[in-house]
Design goal:
35% strand; single chain; Synaptobrevin-like_transport; alpha+beta; 3 helices; five-stranded antiparallel sheet
């Protein structure tokens, strides 16, 4: 399962969503600041969870998920997020709908 997702421009988070609070948000933001932006897809493992980054143009898409999901499904999730993100508006809760509509089998 994917537990958390964000979209950032450089190191600035412009949208994020999680169904529950946790320290993973702080860890994700620290990793975001220290991760090379030239990487197209990058994964960091923390126990049985992973932080996955997908950089496209000037945006970075990140998800925090179970290790069992695997790299391929995480990349598919992040790519679907990238495709759906233009539908995001500044309306409160809109990004949550983009994330919830992003489905991985």
């Amino acid at each position: 399962a994917v537990h958390y997702a964000l979209v950032a421009r450089d190191s600035e988070v412009i949208a994020e969503f999680s169904e529950f609070p946790g320290e993973f948000s702080l860890t994700a933001k620290k990793l975001l600041k220290s991760t090379e932006k030239t990487q197209v897809f990058k994964t960091y493992t923390q126990g049985n969870k992973t932080f996955n980054f997908y950089t496209f143009e000037d945006l970075t898409f990140l998800c925090y998920s179970d290790l069992s999901l695997g790299r391929e499904l995480n990349l598919k999730f992040l790519d679907e997020m990238r495709k759906s993100f233009p539908a995001y508006t500044r309306k409160a809760g809109a990004f949550a709908e983009v994330i919830k509509k992003t489905h991985i089998p």
